[in-house]
Protein: Methyltransferase domain-containing protein
Organism: Gigaspora rosea
Amino acid sequence: MGQPLKKPVKNETNEKCNKQNEETYLKPLSALEAYKFIQGRKFRLATNVALTLPSDSEEAIRFNEAITLMKNLFGSNCSAPVTKLLTCGGAKALEIGTGGGRWLHDMALTFPTSIFLGLDVSTIFNQDYLPENSAFLEHNYHEGIPFPDNTFDYIYQHSISAKFRESVFDDHLCEMSRVLKPGGWMEIYGSPTHIVDAGPATERFIIAACKCLQVNGLNPSIVRTIPEKLKRINIENVQVVERPLTLSRRNKNQMEDEQNLLLRTVEAYRVIMKVAIGCTDEEYDKLKMAIATEVETIDMHIMCVRTFGQKQSFRTFE
């Protein structure tokens, strides 16, 4: 008779290694599946996140350039009266829509005794260079802000026009108010999707951009609705600060940062705009060149808007 078959010995070490290898493989694969690559640009796929602007290194550069321009335009990184609060130290600030990380980095350096946290649906910058009093969390804030009630003294929300579907924006404002401490300030930046005195090519771009936003459930002029929305959720002392950003060249020998930003924005919209207006890359290049020509000859500008308000403090009754 032959030898009885031996029951296979379970190799727990090998099984553990195989499981670890599988997890090591699946983790980046899962992360990759959270994005869609379209014509060389990377877009974030997540609940309620509109496919408008890319989430990649090019977008990080464009975003950071915009932050620098806004700081110069308004005279600071924020318009809400929080300088004293952040200077005294111990305050907690939340930035929503961190993008390329420049606002977060700059504010943390400016106010080293306060704590700054950035939040965004994707990571498109190197966190290693963040100051020690700052951190970043990747999270889909369209589904809620993952912090307890009354956590932050100040909240800053970036560039809402190309981000929030109108159907979820009210809920997002309520979430911002929820995690804001009583007496704390919330501030929202945005620009209406409109260029004042635009030339024909620039106007064509703006009309198509508005169409793209509307198809995605976005309101191109949502920034104008914010003051009333804040008042409805009992935010007090609501104020609006507006500044015109010129898009015309002032130096004949050098392109201004504003013109670079406009052309980078035109490029950022390329993928979805080609679908919206039904054009080829060659046709879109011609449109972009025509816009570049118009900034040389036409006095155009956009309005940049910061809206801020204060959460009601707890009231005591005698």
